[in-house]
Amino acid sequence: MGTAPPAEAVTALEARYGSLTSELLSDRRGSRAWKIATAAGRIALKANVPDVDELRDKAAELAQEDRHLLRLAEADALDAGYRVDAGPWSGGRWLAVRWIDGVPVWRAFERARTPEGDQPAVRSQLMAAAHTWAARLARLHAFGWAHADVQPTNTLITGEGAAEVIDFALSCGPDTSDRLPYRGAITHTTAPEIADAILSTPEDTHVQATPEADMWGLGASLFWCWTGQRPVAYEDGTPRRKKLRTITTGRTLDLAAARPWEFPEFETLIRACLSTDPAGRPTAAEASAW
To answer: Which of 44, 72, 100, 142 has the largest CB neighbor count within 10 A?
Structure first.
């Protein structure tokens, strides 16, 4: 494979769009991603890296994400044009989706993490990101789906300041058949009730993520990207199960002490999303209209 895209993916995409060029964007955790440029526009291409010692089967996750994208589009929970194409290659699976021109939330909030960020334009940027991020989740939730991996790297902020959610491999929908068991995603934005379910069930047991858990992930992501600190305190080298145990307590850092500057409206939204009681969190629709 090298660092070039799978030949099978290139052949399929060139048959549809003509000649293309590729740029490797990332190579980590058993998968690679490329930006594909064609005469018709840009595409994001992902493929697993075979024979990598990873706990998660990336080829199986890509196949699952493809199934999820088809089901989400069929339910009108996601634009049908987002999925471009997918298929097998000699080393596993590949998936192509529409390119979204944006930056991860952490980078988008860089100025907001400084004392100089206390300006009307930055405040508007933070609220616009929160509103549109919640609106994207609300569309999923309305059709019985949870994204299940709400975190800063899975959301891009466009030049217009709107949030776009990506990476649906771990999503949880109404139909739990024909899927890999969900055992949580990134630890730092895992809701307390999901952490508890993971700790109290065998590793091969599916834990159904919920819209309420997505909202905790939203609050945790906003907290993290604005303050520069993860909402729950533990050392980086702490074993995952111990981190999850800490999350189950529901104790988060004091936002008033962690924030770079005061922003009551934004802080109230974050605190509401981080409610220990899932029923006490706003729905995504309510947060989008906050």
So the answer is: 72
195 and 127, same structural domain? Answer: yes
Q: Where residue 37 sits, what CATH number does that domain have?
A: 3.30.200.20
In a domain, residue 1? The reply is no
Domains in the chain, number:
2
Q: Give exposure, 139-168, as e/b (b: 16+ Cβ within 10 Å).
A: bbbeeebbbbbbbbebbbbeeebbbbbbbb
Q: Which two tokens stand for residue 239?
A: 């074993």
CA distance 146 to 137: 8
Angle, vertex CA 167, rays to CA 133 and CA 275, nearest 5: 45
Q: Residue 63, Cα to own-chain centre: how many angstroms?
A: 17
134, 287 contact by CB (below 8 A): yes
- How many residues are listed for the chain in this entry? 290
**pLDDT tens for residues 168-209?**
999 999 998 889 999 999 999 999 999 999 999 999 999 999
The pLDDT tens digits of the residues spanning 140-163 come to 999 999 999 999 999 999 999 999
